[in-house]
Every structure is written in structure tokens, then in C-alpha cells.
Amino acid sequence: MADLFKIIAEIVNIIHDVIMAAAAQIGWQATDKDLHLWIIGIIGIIAFFIVQAVFRRLAKWSITSISFIYTFTLILVLVFAIEIQQGITGRGNMEFADAVAGIYGFLLFFGIYVVWRVIRYGLTKLVKKEKKEGDTSKKGRRYKG
After folding, report:
1. Report field, pTM of the whole predicted structure over 0.70
2. For a Cys-Cys bond, which of 13, 68, 87, 103 suits 94, CB 3.0-4.6 Å?
């Protein structure tokens, strides 16, 4: 896990150096704060437009899908925060496998929830269909009293 973070940090550092060198060549003396403002701002707004388009489409289909994506993102942050905390404090082992197991736990319980919802939906449809068939068989009859 620590090696993964070191690799990611090295990639970010290389990208940082390339951008700072390019900025210096065009005469822009960017500070670290300037770089964060522009790069994170641009990445953020592009991500926003992509997420906005995807979520608009998903909202027409199912709010549950949006809730899943939000919750999954929250779980990812929580799991890695716990692993980082374990690495910092030395309480527990900081392992990528632990993070994966936690994510699998969420997916397992969400899968059980989805199966439950599908069964409930199917039963509801079946009951409505039987009621509808029962109602249509009485149509056309008149009370002869």
C-alpha cells in the first residue's frame, strides 16, 4: 500500500515539475498555490460537467443508481482514510487488501439489497397483474337485478 502511494506521489511530482517548467518558459512564475488553483479548478469543472451529464441520464433511469455512486465514493474515501490512519498511528496493518475487503463488504450488502428490491418488485408486479386480470374478467357484465 505504501509503495502504491509512493508511485502515485512520484507521478504527481513529475507532472508538477513539467507544468512548472512549462509555465516558467512562457514567463509565468506560478506558485504552488497558483498551480493548485488552475489545475484542480480545471480538473474539477471538467469532472463536474461529466458527472452532471451522467447523473442527469441516471436520474431519468433510477435515483438508486445515483445513491449507489455517492455511497460507493464515500466508502472509498472512508476505507482509504482508515488505512492511512492505521499507517500513521501504527494501530493495525496498513494493507491494500484490507481496503479491498471493506469495499467488497459494501458491494456484498448492496448486492443483497438489490436482490431484495428485485424480488419485492417482481412480487408487486405479479400481485398487480393478478388483480388486473381479476378486474378485467368482471368487465362487460351487468347486474341483472
Report:
1. no
2. 87
- The residues, ordered by sequence, that sit 6+ positions from 98 with a Cβ below 8 Å of its Cβ are 83, 86, 92
DSSP character string of 77-125: HHHHHHHHHHHHH-SS---HHHHHHHHHHHHHHHHHHHHHHHHHHHHHH
pLDDT in tens, 80-108: 898 888 888 887 777 888 889 999 999 99
List the chain domain ranges.
20-48, 64-134
Q: What is the DSSP string of 20-49?
A: HHHHHHTT----HHHHHHHHHHHHHHHHHH
Burial class (CB in 10 A: 0-12, 13-18, 19+), 68: middle
Length of the chain: 145
Instruction: Write down the pLDDT at residue 144.
Output: 59
